[in-house]
Amino acid sequence: MSHLLRHALPIWMRLRIAITDLALRLGALSTMAYLAALSFIGVDVMIALISFSAVWPAALPPIVIALAAAAGIRSWWRRRRATTDRETGNS
């Protein structure tokens, strides 16, 4: 986008363009985040988030990335607990 055109746009439009550009640059990461979030939160909630994003599109990527991170932490915690339980003999 040209420099003059960029400054002619309202701030909310420039912000939206920047967010879209970032989302496109992180396309592969976003795809993995969507899949991880889908497996973590289920289809119903994911459809609700996508519906919400139609009203406010900039809200979906941060929510999905946060949920994917939570899924990763949850998975790591379960593996850690299973390893600890095996080592201590707890069931």
Automatic annotation (TrEMBL):
The chain crosses the membrane at residues 22-41, 47-71. Keywords: Membrane, Transmembrane, Transmembrane helix. The keyword Transmembrane helix applies. It comes from the Bacteria. This is Uncharacterized protein. It comes from Williamsia sterculiae. The lineage of its organism: Bacteria, Bacillati, Actinomycetota, Actinomycetes, Mycobacteriales.
